[in-house]
Amino acid sequence: MDSTLRPIAEHELDAFALVPAYGFGDRMPLDEHRGWASHDLDRTVAAFVDGEIVATGRNYSLEMTLPGGATVAAGGVSWITTRPTHRRRGFLTEVMTHLVQDSRDRGEPVSILTASEGGIYGRFGYGVAAQTAAVAIDQPATITRVGANPGTLRFVEAEEAATVGEELFDRMRHTRVGAVSRPAPWWGDEWAPQDWVDARRRFDVVYEADGRIEGYALYSVAGEWPHGISQQVATVRDLVASTPDAEAALWSFLLELDLITGVRMPHVPLDSPVPWMLSDHRQFRTESVRDGLWVRPIDTAQLLASRTYDATGELVVRVVDPFLHLEESEGTFRLSVDAGGASCERTGRDADLSMTVDALGAILLGGVAPSVLARAGRLTPTDAHALTLADAMFRAEHQPFPFTWF
Ligand SMILES: CC(C)(COP(=O)(O)OP(=O)(O)OC[C@H]1O[C@@H](n2cnc3c(N)ncnc32)[C@H](O)[C@@H]1OP(=O)(O)O)[C@@H](O)C(=O)NCCC(=O)NCCS
């Protein structure tokens, strides 16, 4: 089937959005999500057959924080769909080829995404770099940590929540490995939109200390009242704290709300301190752990030289890119880390570790140890010493976590 691939123009946005509506079974009201839908329109790609859009995809221009705090430009792949009438004919493959090459042409060293399913993106060179946990805490669990600075909490309405959220998130993301930027036009209609939940049930609270906002939580309250007894639950969409005191105060506030039985949060970092702050550790129930951020290295040398490492040493890494064989991704690289920092360049030496580009994406942020991937048969070391050194070097200061879902 002959198809052409090209970005869409503004007037084609409705036709473009129809494909994700068919694919996901959800018609997004475009007018309420204009900032999200029309952002970076020149980086959209549509596959046309007989003048009709049959597959979609796009890159958002984002930034991702590496271990050590440096940020790199990242193409954020989103809006991936093929019309259910046209599936399994290679349209996704065409779209992914275009999007990775678009990132490469723009000098983005990495392509990233958050996925609807776990089986789609490995073949395109993406590895699971960060995981996410869905958690539930029931009352009467309470927070025992008492903040050094008690601070104050106050409710804000939607518009203020977007302004406050944007400023705080942008400050915080530089301190968290794997954090992904949230472009300004997304705030009003994607992060703090009016309709993420029935407006009647949506609440936003901020935490301030010394006149400065240090945390916020966006949450909703919903549930039945059987026999007049509230079984409502508070669901947290977004909770960002720039200090441990802010995190403790926000969780304490949520857990002590009246007329709820507990708190749910669908995305929590794996190394959350919250269970360790609770009166009863067992009340922090991890209901699922799954893939969070998928990372596909494009410029291997640039990425490896841009992060910091937990140990000094030298490793020769061979990387293969079976999907696109990109010149910048593939090859043998010498990574050297000393007190002065990291450097990475091509070498003719034998490799200490060999892996495909998706495995490099998985270890890049320190979310999984190279030795775990070796045990899974996804990475091959020449000897045990190289693997021990790789484990020590690639560790990061936090479990990586994107905070941003796109
Ligand atoms: C996922 C989706 C985009 C695939 O599109 P498609 O055009 O059918 O994909 P392709 O024909 O290019 O398939 C490429 C390869 O991926 C495989 N593949 C496609 N979808 C897959 C899935 N959901 N799980 C596992 N493998 C999948 C195909 O079998 C094919 O493998 P092969 O090369 O070994 O034959 C499409 O099914 C869809 O729109 N799904 C609903 C929306 C969605 O989940 N989008 C992803 C958002 S993150």
If you consult CATH, what is the topology of the largest domain? Answer: Aminopeptidase
Mean pLDDT: 95
**Number of DSSP helices?**
11
Give the total of domains. 3
- Report the oligomer: single chain
For the largest sheet, list the strands in their spatial order: 1-2-3-4-5-12-6-11-10-9-8-7
Rg computed from alpha carbons, rounded to a whole number of angstroms: 22 Å
Tally the beta strands: 17
Which class do the helix and strand fractions yield? Answer: alpha+beta
Note down, in words, how this protein is organized.
The chain has 406 residues and is an alpha+beta fold. Helices cover 25% and strands 33% of the residues. The chain contains 11 helices and 17 strands. Coenzyme A (COA) is lined by residues 23-24, 55, 80-82, 87-93, 115-117, 119-120, 123.
How would the blueprint of this fold be written?
Elements: E1 4-6, H1 13-24, H2 34-37, E2 44-49, E3 52-65, E4 71-82, H3 91-105, E5 110-113, E6 127-138, E7 152-156, H4 158-172, H5 184-191, E8 202-209, E9 212-222, E10 233-241, H6 244-255, E11 262-268, H7 274-277, E12 284-297, H8 300-306, E13 313-320, E14 331-338, E15 341-346, E16 353-356, H9 357-363, H10 370-375, E17 379-381, H11 384-394
The structure holds coenzyme A.
Residues 23-24, 55, 80-82, 87-93, 115-117, 119-120, 123 line the site of coenzyme A.
Task: Give a summary of the structure in a few sentences.
This protein is 25% helix and 33% strand.
Properties at a glance:
single chain, 406 residues, Aminopeptidase, Nonspecific Lipid-transfer Protein, Chain A, 3 domains, 5-stranded mixed β-sheet, 11 helices, 17 strands, binds coenzyme A
